[in-house]
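pasting for ref
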Amino acid sequence: MDPEAINKALERIAHEIIEEFKSVEDIAIIGIKNRGAYLGQRLAVKIEQIFGRKPNIGALDITLYRDDLTQASEQPVVHATEIGFDIDDKKIILVDDVLFTGRTIRCALDALIDFGRPAKIQLAVLIDRGHRELPIKADYVGKNIPTSLKEVVEVRLKEADGKDEVVLCEKL
């Protein structure tokens, strides 16, 4: 995906969210750090452009909730979770860049529930690449990209990587 395709996918997701909820009063966009948080910020801006009002927005760090924490790194880097509003009874749109096995989303759900009891949690992802290990499905998908287990989907965003693109690579 090039920058234009990423932008169109986020616009489509924003319209789908608006069709579902009709108002931004009770919804909140919470992105999973890092790239999911950047995508969540972009999605909130698009929703504001349509509704005239930006929904609550936050960023969730799931580092300490990972089930592979000891395998991922000897010294995991923990980032700040930024949720400056009460999530009780809110309709949460959890945002991530790539949905793969579902384990990241499971961790995010565990982390989110520690902050309160939302009325509803939905999932928006830029890319769904399949290969689920857990019964998790996205409510909003920018693009489905069927992959093999020998491939990796790399989402690059200008906020973190200097450019916007999605690339399918062979696993090394």
